[in-house]
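User: Reviewer 2 asked us to show a designed sequence for the structure in our supplementary figure. I'm pasting the structure tokens here. Could you produce the per-position amino acids so we can include them in the response letter?
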């Protein structure tokens, strides 16, 4: 496996993981918001609500960091794929095709 293919595989894996992680944090924040609403509707004590709000803030604080890391890997992957576009040995590999798929999946976040 050439160095370019290895780099494509690494950056593709990182993009997939970070995209999944970002989506997870967003989903978790939504769940936490709903939980806090439920607690307020049940007139739960303020201490419990405050603790749940702290958890929500921690979850929300992870989203920008995760997005920044995803953007860095995404941009690196796009650049690498563009550089290897004319290399027939590389652009025929499954790693290259996987990279194109994740680029297509993630690009709406940054374009």
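Assistant: Here is a per-position design you can include in the supplement:
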């Amino acid at each position: 496996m050439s160095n370019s293919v290895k780099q494509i595989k690494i950056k593709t894996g990182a993009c997939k993981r970070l995209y999944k992680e970002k989506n997870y944090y967003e989903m978790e924040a939504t769940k936490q918001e709903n939980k806090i609403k439920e607690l307020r509707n049940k007139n739960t004590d303020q201490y419990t609500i405050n603790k749940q709000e702290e958890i929500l803030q921690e979850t929300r604080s992870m989203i920008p960091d995760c997005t920044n890391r995803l953007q860095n890997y995404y941009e690196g992957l796009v650049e690498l794929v563009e550089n290897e576009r004319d290399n027939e040995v590389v652009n025929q590999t499954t790693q290259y095709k996987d990279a194109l798929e994740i680029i297509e999946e993630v690009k709406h976040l940054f374009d």
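For the response letter, you might also mention the following. The chain has three helices and no strands. The two ends are 31 Å apart (CA to CA).
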